[in-house]
Amino acid sequence: MGDVTGKEMDNLTFKSDTVLSDVHLHCPNKSHLMVRLNAVGQPVFLSYFKLLWNTDDQASEKYARETTTEREHQYRSGAELTSKDGNNLKYEKELNTEGIEALLDEDGDLDVVRRPQRASDSEAEDLMRDRVYPVILMKGKENAFEDEEQECTCRNVVKIEHTMATPLEDVGKQVWRAAFLLADYILFKRDVFRSCTVLELGGGTGIASIIMGMIASRVYCTDVGEDLLAMCEQNVALNKHLMEPGGGEIKVKELDWLKDEFCTDPEALYSWSEEEIADLHDHCTVIMAADALQ
Q1: Any coiled-coil ranges, and where (predicted)?
Q2: Fewer C-beta neighbours within 10 Å, C or N terminus of the chain?
């Protein structure tokens, strides 16, 4: 018995592999706020994602232009210096050597010059670091939308509830980079999707459908799994202020594309009505998906 037990201990078997999205992996811990436990006991986190509109793009372009101008000035100054001392190769070599040594520290390693941190950034970081909030965990329930009105409603912030480090069958409960790529494309092609009826396959947390809901007339955000769809519906409720100016509507529905029929069971929470099926067939002109898994 002892020999058999020893062999079993040497051969480790993982019953459930978990994966973590790189979106959550590269975010600092202070960006995630645990808000509750879902119906199956998984921790649910709330993250904020900022939309970069034209004002930010213009600021970036201005910085790029200033940087380019500064580099051109340095290049021209260097060219003038070279032309003046072109006949003195020894002096030029000494000048280059001194310039290289100026970039090294006392150990001879490259001393990287970093952009100085602004006072406002450090103050904001200190404020974020000092704030500690108690968290009360509660089991997920059907009407879990009580606190949505208390959250800030900014036009450039998307609030998403999600889980982290899930098994493969629950990866739709995380936010993935492909959803960001699709959302960026939607915002870039706003005129193409304006006033459309859209179907999203494998909507997951619903972030792509939320962005599309700011532009399109109606979005059917679909996936499978009652717990996942409940989380998606919660995210739609948290971001309804983003859809209201354009009059967009998002409907969270169950859709398994491996099946031939829609779920029309009236007992199911996310089933389809005959009117919704007819509307989808008659008016849907866009079908989108990001990292859809079967």
Answers
A1: none
A2: N
pLDDT tens digits for range 107-163: 666 666 666 666 555 555 555 554 444 444 444 444 444 444 444 557 789 999 999
Scanning the chain, the segments in alpha helix (DSSP H) are 2-10, 22-25, 54-84, 89-102, 119-130, 177-188, 190-193, 207-213, 226-238, 240-243, 274-283
User: Whole-angstrom Cα distance, residue 97 to residue 225?
Assistant: 66
- The rounded distance, in Å, linking the Cα atoms of 202 and 158 is 19
Residue 95, in any domain of the structure: yes
Mean model confidence pLDDT for the chain:
76
Give me the CATH number covering residue 189.
Answer: 3.40.50
Return the amino acid letter for 16.
Answer: S
Reported confidence tier of residue 18, pLDDT bands at 50, 70, 90: confident
Mean pLDDT in residue range 261-265: 95
Residue 33's pLDDT band (cuts 50, 70, 90): confident
| Distance from C-alpha of 182 to C-alpha of 179, rounded to nearest angstrom | 5
Share of the chain above pLDDT 70, in %: 58
Q: Are residues 29 and 157 in the same domain?
A: yes
- Check whether residue 207 and residue 94 sit in a common domain: no
State how many domains the chain has.
2
pTM > 0.70: yes or no: no
- Say if residue 31's pLDDT is above 80: no
**SS (HEC) of 90-136:** HHHHHHHHHHHHHCECCCCCECCCCCCCCHHHHHHHHHHHHCCCCCC
CB 155 within 8 A of CB 267: no
Is residue 124 one of the residues assigned to a domain?
Answer: no
266 and 154 inside one domain: yes
For residue 293, which of 212, 209, 224 has the smallest C-alpha distance?
Answer: 224
Burial label, 197 (beta-carbon count in 10 A; 0-12, 13-18, 19+)? middle
Q: What range defines the domain where residue 64 resides?
A: 56-102
